[in-house]
């Protein structure tokens, strides 16, 4: 796993490569612990399996209306076929927003990019979306303001190789 941490000024770049040990993540979490809020810790959310009928009726994250809170452009729009998604946050998103559940329609994603626009706001790790993406290898979050990262935010992400927090405030 490689982890990239770029500060807002882009003067600091931390790049870690991991083999079987978790020294890199431990170092990053130690840095983040300085600003972590213990009350932000929560139990990992449990995702339920949707039936094929529920999936058919769910909005496709790659085919959302342009006025949605989150708009994604995918390499392929058909449900269950996209490998890459670039998503823009246009308004304030909350952890409990239903838009995160729409990621079930693209469970094959290997690369997810979330870009927070100037009038948008995302101040958390979107664990509700990640729960539906078992194959994700690269996550890139840009321009977010995340005050703390819960201890298990990336739990069970065994395929995760790269995490970019480009121009994000931590």
Can you describe this structure?
The protein has 170 residues and is an alpha/beta fold. The protein has one domain. It is built from 3 helices and 7 strands. The protein has helices at residues 23-33, 52-57, 127-130; strands at 2-6, 13-17, 70-74, 84-89, 111-116, 138-142, 162-164. The longest helix has 11 residues, at 23-33. The radius of gyration is 16 Å and the shape is globular. 22% of the residues are buried. Residues 6-56 have low confidence and may be disordered.
Question: Topology of this structure?
Answer:
Elements: E1 2-6, E2 13-17, H1 23-33, H2 52-57, E3 70-74, E4 84-89, E5 111-116, H3 127-130, E6 138-142, E7 162-164
Structural class: alpha/beta
Report mean pLDDT, rounded to a whole number.
76
Low-confidence stretches: 6-56
> Count the strands?
7
Short descriptors:
170 residues, alpha/beta, 7-stranded mixed sheet, 21% strand, globular
Entry summary:
By secondary structure, the protein is α/β, with parallel strands linked by helices. The protein has helices spanning 23-33, 52-57, 127-130; strands at residues 2-6, 13-17, 70-74, 84-89, 111-116, 138-142, 162-164.
